[in-house]
């Protein structure tokens, strides 16, 4: 092992950059917008249809991407409800 060479971990680029934060914000926004679309397609106020799978499909991302932004469906539902309030002008 060469003690003078930087480790692989030190060579990796940081994921914390303004561009990366902007991309993450845009992805989160797409996910929430897809959640709003799912809710608008529901025939009743039964939020069981607002799943990670349905939102991921609508946003064009994987389910794991949705999980990166929301720890559970309660957080996802909260973000969607907040967006619905914004859209309604409440």
Short note summarizing the structure:
With 90 residues, this protein is mostly helical.
Describe the structure.
- This protein has 90 residues and is an all-alpha fold.
- The protein has helices spanning 8-11, 18-41, 52-59, 63-69, 73-88.
- The longest helix is centred in the N-terminal third of the chain and has 24 residues, at 18-41.
- The N and C termini lie far apart (62 Å).
Keywords for this structure?
90 residues, mainly alpha, 66% helix, 0% strand, elongated
Radius of gyration, in angstroms, nearest whole number:
18 Å
* CA distance, first residue to last residue: 62 Å
Unreliable spans are: none
What general form does the structure show? elongated
Helix content: 55-70%
Average pLDDT, rounded to a whole number, is 88
- Beta percentage is under 5%
Largest sheet: none
Number of helical stretches of at least 4 residues: 5
Query: Total strand count, please?
Result: 0
* Class by alpha and beta content: mainly alpha
The ordered H/E elements are HHHHH
